Amino acid sequence: MRSGTVAVLLGWLLVFLGAALLVPVAVSIYFKDGSYPFFILSSLITILLGVALAGLFRADREIGNREGFAVVALGWIAAAGLGALPFYLSGAVPSYLDAYFEAMSGFTTTGSTILREVEPLGPSLLFWRALTQWLGGMGIIVLSLAILPVLGIGGMQLFQAEMPGPTKDRLSPRIQDTARILWGVYVLLTLAETVLLRLGGMGLFDAVCHSFATMATGGFSTRTASVAAFHSAWVDGVVTVFMVLAGINFTLHHRWLTGHLRPVWRNEELRFYLGVGLAATAICTLVNVGSGTYADWGASFRYGAFQSWSILTTTGFGTADFDRWAPVCRLLLVTLMFLGGMAGSTGGGIKHVRVLLFWKFTRVQVRRLIHPRSVEVIKLDGRPVPDDVMKGVLGFLALYFAVFVAASLVVTWTGVDLVTGTTAVVATLNNIGPGLAGVGPLANFADLPALAKFVLVICMVGGRLELYTLAVLLVPGYWKGLRAPRFRWRRPPGPAEGGRRAAAP
User: Which terminus of the chain is more solvent-facing, meaning fewer CB atoms within 10 Å of its CB: N or C?
Assistant: First the structure.
């Protein structure tokens, strides 16, 4: 692995992050909350570190899979580390571990928080929380793909490591054009939601922050009570619609916006995703009315639909304390946490396409027990699924549940009760936000032990990068052949010089 290339790419990513840290400065000055010096200092530190990495070392024009995995994984870790500085320097979060937890929760679009109340942060820090989710939703790394060609560096490996799901859908032969298309759709939907929330009476600042968090399926709100604080059926409805849209593969949004409707509806994963969400809404509505949680059908549908889609899309917004719902509803919501959104969406979780393929695989295995000589091919959208994709799905599921069990054991070993500990792992590993009991919709992660928070941070980044990207860094063979970085002021050896060195005893 070429460490110099990794260092240069990380350097440019930090420069982009440093520029993003300057955006809340304008918010701070406008609202006069006094936090702008902390953003300026954080931006200065981040940009100087990025310039040092990009300026000191020499990068190759193309990168391989190893470099791609390293840049993505280390990029998220570094982004959270530096993105935590405004929280820590301002004193809003006195513990750096807690500040790192909050920043990682933002960049990974998890939405879990260690803050008991968010309003005291002030507008600029609240805006930064929302912005970290919006940037992390589609990915800082995918954003950088649009300008990496300017640096003369190829980006397909970064795209493969960052984009979620077992398959990658190219909209354009050039990867930077694909990144621009995806970001264009992302920005368009964000603006549309902002306008609709404003029409419902929400202030511009709140509308922008909630649109950022919705399209990123993040769930950070400007209010401690989340969306419930606005007491508006219109706001609930708008946010629900855009949560559904955010959980859909963004390539399908592009096809729909360009008039290609047939391939959108023929997409099996989309139909499965919508079917699961509608079924969960119906069950929660019926059960909550039957159990007396809500007195009328309208309220039961409103809150049942919002929370079902909020959990299924891994957004994590709240309009109701679902920890007080009937046990069957709580169990259903926990099940939805595992599913997540569609592949190619900003949602976390296992992804519906993997669940759908696993169901098809299981069905084929059962049929073969009855008809041993039958030959059946697993198909998705009418096309055979390659064996390597199916093996990748099965391998991911095995790794996923191994990580879930291991993380749950460690968190509960720290003294956290079973329900709180396991649902905290589910919430962070799937980038949901709230869990149940001690980390429920009206609670937070502040009182968890330091070791538990550390494990949950790993779950966040592992879940956001779908485990494999982070797991490969732990394989000893990955680091074989690690090359020392080449400094810019040291000219690479020419062919003749290189040949003489190679021939020397």
Answer: C
pLDDT of residue 383: 87
Q: How far apart are CA 411 and CA 422, in angstroms?
A: 8
415's tokens: 């003294």
- Transcribe 120-149 into DSSP letters: GG-HHHHHHHHHHHHHHHH-HHHHHHTTGG
Residues facing 383 on adjacent strands = 380
Q: For the residues 432-443, what does the mean pLDDT come to?
A: 94
* Annotated binding residue 109: yes
* SS3 call for 483: strand
Give the chain's end-to-end CA distance (angstroms, integer): 26
Tokens 């629900």 sit at which residue?
A: 240
> For the chain, what percent of residues have pLDDT higher than 70?
89
Residues 416, 18: Cα–Cα separation, whole Å:
37
**E strand residue ranges, 388-500:** none
Whether residue 470 contacts residue 75, with contact meaning beta carbons closer than 8 Å, is answered with no
Residue 194 among known ligand-binding residues:
no
Structure tokens at 233: 């059926």
Residue partners of 127: CB distance under 8 A and separation at least 6: 23, 24, 27, 205, 208, 209
Does the annotation flag 218 for ligand binding? yes
